[in-house]
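Input chain follows. Return structure tokens only.
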Amino acid sequence: MRKIVYIIGLSGVLMSSVVEAKLNKDDKKSCEEMGYTVDYTLCAMQNRTIPLLCPYSESEGKLKAMCYISSCRGYFLKEEDFSQLASDGRPMSAHIKGDIQFKKVNGGGISGCKAGYTQGSNGQLEEVWYYRINQCAEGSSFQNGRCDTGCDRTNKYPYDIHPGNLAGTVEGCFDEKGDCFGYTSCNEGWTFDKGRCELNKCSVQNYPYFSNPNTDEDRGLTKTCKIGGNAYHRYTNTDSNGEPLTEGDCAHNGYILSSAACIKQCVFSDCTSEDKVVTYTKDSTTYTTTYHEWSCKINTQHCRIGDYMTINGQNIGVIFHLPDSTLDKVLVAATTSVSKTWGANEATYLDTPLPNGQRPTDYNGKYNSYVIKNFSKSNDNYNYPALDYAISYAPSNCNDAICNEGEWYLPSIGELNFLHDNRYLMYNIMPNSSRYYSSFSFWSSNENGADTACFKNVGIVYCWPKTFSYHTVPVLSFTLK
């Protein structure tokens, strides 16, 4: 605790009191940084000055102060401001009517106000003055308390109406053409350019995390880019100078750096299945197909979307959904995809037994896939290329039953919505990155009618002819034990 003496001027009478304060040295600025540069005893020697004391002074013998006379409210210009260039390239002083005389209460074209004293480099007190302009020269006009030839609508005031204060600080200007406005500074997330505040132009696909990805597990150094009010994050293996890191980054911490994403192997084991049956009857003949719904044990903590699903030491796909209140399943996308038509031959104009419609909350892609697969048994000309590719997929590096042919399927629209939501991560991880950004066009297992099926395209669901070709990605799903 330190004792600090404050000397306060009240109605022309000096009063003193002792105030004790507990100060945190790590948080405070120095007195000089805050403008307290004068030994308070020097202020007391000046007529009609009040010493405003620095609260961080170390002792009574080293009290620093501002020698205060007046607040000079309304006088916001300093002497050096008059040499700043106006829009015509001349100093502002050339646009002021009358003579300019500094350190005078009334100096011709300007008025002055003495605020007090500060301590100069020679240790002596120097006067502190602020100014305002009385009148602009002929042909010049007031613009925010300054004189200029007119509003520079190209470089300073590009807006005809007030653009709002969300992006930065706005200043107005009025001349013979009327009002105009421009930014004088921009908030974080915006870039200043000739009176405008433009959104930062960092590419969101290179900053795939919408929040700090190290909240649950610190995987390595990240960089942040702010676009407007939104912050985006990425992992990096270089320092602020672009030099490679030797520690503290994703790869050196034992993870896998894939472009801007930091991923790890999320290990699953003990996968077991339950039989499910679909049927279809046509002309007194019933067709039946059995498929499996899986559940697995997770052996790794802090798994994330974007991590590999790993079984027996092999990475078999990328997780794009983890169980939540919407869907209590893990969803895994294969690291390969191809372009296929949804239907072929007679299947291009026949309705399947599935309900029609876009069905954005349908999360039963495996059921849908096997309803269509079972339906195709009823006629050899009912061909579904996208579905057949998904169901027949099996990663060559996996010998676990959950990876086998017949366990992967064509995802539903609801499942594709999860994949689309994480397309920036997939762009940084998947081999065919361009299929996730900037284009995103994947077939679903939903149809809209006899001749149209639905696919997910950048933020929108379309249902177009089954003869069209779009990307097809096999998907795996299971619950957690």
